[in-house]
Amino acid sequence: MLDDDLLRYSRHILLNEIGLEGQALIQSAHALIVGAGGLGSPVALYLGSAGVGQITVVDDDTVDLTNLQRQIAHTQARVGKSKVSSLQTAIQAINPTVTVSAIQARADAQLLGKLVTAADIVIDCCDNFETRHAINAACVRLRKPLVSGAAIRFDGQVCVYDPRDETSPCYACVFPPTTSFEETRCATMGVFAPLVGIVGSLQAAEALKVISGVGRALTGRLLMIDGRAMEFTELKLGRSANCPVCGTAA
């Protein structure tokens, strides 16, 4: 580790749970972030500042004026630019030692197969069930840990799905692909600006914990956030034998 690294990451290295070994694991990791908006912004900024060595960000959208209320990695000057290039600029302004790959594309099953294969951990920051299920399927198939988050109005949730753990459910165990869910979007329902920061920060924390092996991850536990009362509720989750993705019949 270079002298500059020892200085930059000194506050992590001072933590007994992380230390030099944990920071080295962080710096050698490759994180895939799917979605460069409200959740992707804090996730990318915290992973970049923490020194995750390689970060790949995929999103097909461009920065819009309505995004600036909550998508803190983007700026007025970058309205109209691709979100992934804007996020790349923001990460490297904080930490130029991080390698950032910006992919402006929709994260379909074919693309995810390639990107998840190359990653050590996947962070789901997207906003629709179709993509979430495609991400989950790729992570289950390739046995890659997935940190999932969502936020709408004043409600948020975070969970870790780790197919390397035989007791861990996958996203489809909790939200079956055969079940019809009403698609809710910020554009029609609204979202409390700091809530995406809370959820995204928790996702970043869980990702860093999984990478470095620190603490107890939210594997098999769905953390639900009520932003109105600022109450946190935890639901314990189990793997479903009938899950079409990770179950015994899959």
CATH architecture: 3-Layer(aba) Sandwich
Give, in order, the helices and strands: HHHEHEHEHEHEEHHHEE
Total beta strands: 8
Total of helices: 10
Any idea what the shape is?
Answer: globular
Q: CATH topology, anyone?
A: Rossmann fold
User: How much of the residues is beta strand, in percent?
Assistant: 15-25%
Which structural class do you get from the secondary structure elements? alpha/beta
Describe this structure as you would to a colleague.
- By secondary structure, this protein is α/β, with parallel strands linked by helices.
- It has one domain (3-236): NAD(P)-binding Rossmann-like Domain (Rossmann fold, 3-Layer(aba) Sandwich), CATH 3.40.50.
- The protein has ten helices and eight strands.
- The chain has helices spanning 3-8, 10-13, 19-27, 40-50, 83-94, 109-118, 129-142, 171-174, 186-189, 193-212; strands at 30-34, 54-58, 99-103, 121-124, 146-152, 155-161, 221-226, 231-236.
- An eight-stranded mixed beta sheet has the order 3-2-1-4-5-6-7-8, with helices on both faces.
- Helix 4 (40-50) packs parallel to helix 10.
- It is globular and about 50 Å long.
- The mean pLDDT is 95.
Question: What is this entry, summarized?
Answer:
The longest helix has 20 residues, at 193-212. The N and C termini lie far apart (44 Å). With 250 residues, the protein is α/β, with parallel strands linked by helices.
